[in-house]
Design goal:
Layout lengths: L9 H9 L7 H11 L4 E4 L6 H15 L11 E4 L3 H14 L7 E4 L5 H10 L3 E4 L1 H9 L10 E4 L2 H6 L3 H9 L6 E6 L4 H10 L4 E4 L10 E7 L5 H11 L5 E4 L3 H13 L4 E4 L5 H13 L4 E4 L1 H4 L9 E4 L6 H8 L9 E7 L4 H11 L29 H9 L11 H8 L11
Parallel strand pairs: 1-6, 1-7, 2-4, 2-5, 3-4, 5-6, 8-13, 9-11, 9-12, 10-11, 12-13
Length: 431
């Protein structure tokens, strides 16, 4: 089946064809007709399945066909994403797929000057892509009116909950008209996601193209056991001996990302780090260098890497296993995208055995273990359990949503509103 059989406008089919796509992916095949019919949907799709085009194409068509006053451009479609990188990526897709339609779009997120964003909003846009924190900044500064939104998209809703944005999301929903179409997408489904969907969606149609919480079958997954102190040495060895040219490496912390980047560079391997403490300009530059091949290794934390879209990324390495097992699924989903094969390697020390068992339990499969000669585990080392911030995913969310515990990157709506009156040209750091 081709895109023109889905009832899409010729202008949209032309843009998709120019992007090099001729056949819809399963999520696109199911979602596009349902959205065009005006239904709410609850979409479950792993990263790399073509989900963004699955909601962007019908969204553009609905707005174009229902256009009323072309001279006045209120925000008619709102797409909420958890991170800056994902917001930027979605915004690029909206602009590309809508290049032959007379619709305007823009993106707003934290970490950059708020004034140019306000200027674009005053000019009028049909489609707004935003992170929750910066969107509320604009609402509080009265540079944004959401009273005429016809279509709401919550992209990667599970990550928004993980990052403590649930209160911000609920506040935003209260600013929207009661009559609207709602599209919720999530890679995993928890009880919290179901609860959010029940309160948001109106008789939604469920679309799920992969079994929930299952890692991609396109990705070859390996475990390399190694002592903690030799992880960086083993990583450099693998990259050099196997001539990996493009590797995305995950660490648990920002400081760990910086340390590993420096170690790789000392070993003669070009590397860059991307995490929440980096400015948006530095993050964008690091990603661009990684994509064009001038940097071989991009070291990232989970939050910063969310939304990274890198064509044909061959290797993902878990330098450290994530505290939350669902993040493993998101991490390895950076490779093996759109039907291509990929390889995900985890360097696991004895301290991380509990985290590994949690991951296996989630994805319901065993992971092959390969010992690299010369890097055998020292049997005399006693395990020290990895310290978790909280005992459960729910506790992590509750902690992050508590204004007293949240970092400045995600202020509570109340504290954000108080600070807006004295805020100058730059907004707070919100993902």
């Amino acid at each position: 089946m081709s895109f023109d059989t889905l009832g899409l406008l010729p202008e949209l089919v032309r843009a998709v064809t120019e992007q090099g796509y001729s056949t819809p992916t399963p999520i696109q095949l199911q979602a596009i007709p349902v959205i065009l019919d005006g239904n709410d949907i609850m979409g479950g799709a792993q990263t790399g399945t073509g989900k963004t085009a699955g909601f962007t194409l019908p969204l553009l068509q609905l707005l174009y066909k229902n256009a009323q006053n072309k001279n006045r451009r209120p925000v008619r479609a709102l797409i909420l994403t958890p991170t800056r990188e994902l917001a930027a990526q979605v915004s690029e897709s909206v602009k590309f797929y809508g290049k032959y339609l007379p619709l305007k779009s823009t993106v707003i997120f934290g970490g950059v000057n708020i004034n140019p964003q306000a200027a674009k909003l005053r000019q009028g846009v049909d489609i707004l892509v935003a992170t929750p924190g910066r969107l509320l900044d604009h609402v509080n500064q009265k540079t944004l009116d959401l009273s005429q939104v016809e279509l709401l998209v919550l992209d990667e809703a599970d990550r928004m909950l993980d990052m403590g944005f649930i209160h911000d999301v609920r506040k935003i929903i209260k600013l929207l008209p009661g009559k609207r179409q709602n599209l919720l997408f999530s890679a995993t489904f928890s009880n919290e996601i179901k609860k959010l969907a029940d309160s948001l969606l109106n008789s939604p149609i469920m679309i799920e193209v992969a079994r929930r919480n299952i890692s991609s079958e396109q990705v070859e997954q390996l475990i390399h056991p190694v002592d903690q102190k030799r992880k960086s040495e083993l990583l450099s060895h693998l990259i050099s001996s196997q001539n990996w040219r493009q590797v995305l490496v995950f660490t648990r912390t920002k400081h760990g990302a910086n340390r590993l980047t420096k170690k790789l560079e000392n070993d003669g391997i070009s590397a860059a780090a991307i995490h929440g403490n980096k400015s948006q300009r530095a993050r964008t530059q690091a990603l661009a260098s990684f994509k064009n091949g001038s940097v071989r290794v991009l070291v990232a934390t989970d939050i910063a890497a969310r939304g990274l879209d890198i064509d044909q990324l061959p290797h993902v390495v878990n330098f450290e296993l994530p505290n939350v097992p669902e993040d493993y699924v998101h991490r390895i989903g950076r490779t093996g995208r759109a039907g291509r094969e990929g390889k995900a390697i985890s360097l696991v020390c004895i301290d991380e055995q509990k985290l590994l068992q949690d991951i296996k339990r989630l994805i319901k499969r065993d992971l092959p273990m390969v010992v690299i000669p010369g890097y055998e585990v020292d049997p005399s080392i006693e395990p020290v359990p990895i310290h978790k911030l909280r005992n459960s995913r729910g506790n992590m969310r509750r902690s992050s949503s508590n204004p007293k515990n949240r970092r400045s990157t995600s202020q509570s709506p109340a504290s954000r509103g108080k600070k807006n009156s004295s805020r100058k040209s730059k907004g707070g750091k919100s993902y």
